[in-house]
Amino acid sequence: MAINWFKYSAPTTFYGLAGKLIPYFAWAAAILFVIGLYIGFFVAPTDAVQSEAYRIMFIHVPASILSMFIYLVMAGYAALGLIFKTRLSAMMAQALAPTGALFAFISLWTGALWGKPMWGAWWVWDARLTSELILLFLYLGFIALQASIEDSRRADKAGALLAIVGSVNVPIIYFSVKWWNTLHQGSTIKFSGTSMHIAMQQAMLAMLIACWLYAIAVTLARVRSIILEREANTTWVNELPEMKVQS
Amino acid sequence: MNKLSLFGLLSLVIRRDLLLAMRRRADVLTTLVFFVMVVSLFPLGVGPEPEMLRKMASGVVWVAALLASMLSLPRMFSADYLDGTLEQMLLAPQSLTALVLGKIVAHWMLSGLPLVLIAPVLGLQFDMSAQALGMLVLALLLGTPILSMIGAVGAALTLGLRGGGVLVSLLVLPLCIPVLIFGAGAVEAVTSGMSAVSNLSLLAAFMLFALVFTPFVAAQALRISME
């Protein structure tokens, strides 16, 4: 059976598909957020060493994971857009960037809130913190570049090239920061191999999947807006029921 | 002109850019003066204790070099873009990658090399030892070409955009962090009595890596910007 891989790579068909999918992802995310937060706050026991402050990790860890993962996905879509010249891939990359930056920011913010009671400092030049900060810079550079190019085709391609260069550079940056850190100071407090309580694992997993689904829902919503913005002059957009209601 | 070897092409582009720069020396000098000024401001900000200055010297010189090279980046392609030369370069039968490499080398000779040469004088202001000064020059020699190479990608991507100058720094500075770390690390290793070989090797590896990829990527970026 021949599968048409490119069927949903056309904005026309994807717009409808995304519209149908968003409620599922959004509701699943909301339900899992509630479950994750409930287990995290009421079921998971108080930690022996870190007492109640450890609970911030239920949002901190998923945000950190997703901030890195989204950059990879973004670079992947950017590469697809450059190779196959599919407009939708570039739109997806553009739609993912703000969510990735948001997660990077949440990760840094919650990390600071956790660091104050644990390390006694809002900010420590730890390798992981520093590379997360640089990741946020990379996101901001990508967003700034796309925002300052008016021609959307050029913006797509330039952003794609930047995302690919960035993703090649990310491992180099990560290891250089890691070695720099060990050179300058002893390693700060680490999670040792203490086995995590089962409820903690459940809460973490629920929150991770919830954040993931949230990212998908928000990205799809954003990509729909981008499609409408870019295709505003086409007939299929003007024939959409939601456009007729407004006019 | 048709049978131009790669090195013939490179030297042609480099000589042209150098000649153009010599006709407008102010551009080169501004970068250098900026570098000297930024480095000289630090002791005024943190105080004149030689102990502390010696400790932060390599980092200060490296950060200043990073900023100074950002300052000259927007000029890398903009003059050629404005007078139409760049369009001819894109149409030329010779490889655009080689042309871009030539422009990168010329840019380094105009904005990187002067910094390397003046850095020891600035290091003396910070009471650096002779050994550390030697290592600073060596590390800058290996590191500043990387700044020009990564910078070329950023300059090509932001060609002709409003606010391109600030934007190019925003794009390029995070990518240059490894250079800063290894470059300053090499000098620090010498001052604390360790071997700087690992830092220099990594710096050289990064330079070779950038040498292979960045001219090609910058050429692609130019094609995107000129469409």
TrEMBL record, chain A:
Provide the coiled-coil residue spans. none
Database matches in InterPro entries: Cyt_c_assembly, Cyt_c_biogenesis_CcmC, Cyt_c_biogenesis_CcsA/CcmC
For this protein, the parts annotated as crossing the membrane are 21-44, 56-83, 95-115, 127-147, 159-180, 200-221
- Record GO biological process: cytochrome complex assembly
Location in the cell:
Membrane
One GO cellular component this record assigns the protein to is: plasma membrane
Q: Which UniProt keywords are listed?
A: Cytochrome c-type biogenesis, Membrane, Transmembrane, Transmembrane helix
- How does this chain sit within the bilayer? Multi-pass membrane protein
Decide whether keyword Hydrolase is in the record: no
**Where does it primarily localize?**
membrane
A matching Pfam family = Cytochrom_C_asm
Q: Where is the Cytochrome c assembly protein domain?
A: 5-184
User: What molecular functions are annotated in GO for this chain?
Assistant: heme binding; heme transmembrane transporter activity
Family membership, please give it: Belongs to the CcmC/CycZ/HelC family.
What protein name does the entry list? Heme exporter protein C
Which species is listed as the source? mine drainage metagenome
TrEMBL record, chain B:
Among the record's GO biological process terms, what is one?
cytochrome complex assembly
Quote the protein name from its UniProt record.
Heme exporter protein B
Q: What does this protein do?
A: Required for the export of heme to the periplasm for the biogenesis of c-type cytochromes.
Q: Name one GO molecular function term.
A: heme transmembrane transporter activity
Please give the family membership noted in the entry: Belongs to the CcmB/CycW/HelB family.
Asked if the keyword Transmembrane belongs to this entry, the reply reads: yes
UniProt keyword list: Cell inner membrane, Cell membrane, Cytochrome c-type biogenesis, Membrane, Transmembrane, Transmembrane helix, Transport
Gene name in the database record: ccmB_1
The record, for Pfam families, names:
CcmB
Which residue ranges does UniProt annotate as crossing the membrane?
26-47, 59-77, 97-124, 136-161, 167-190, 202-222
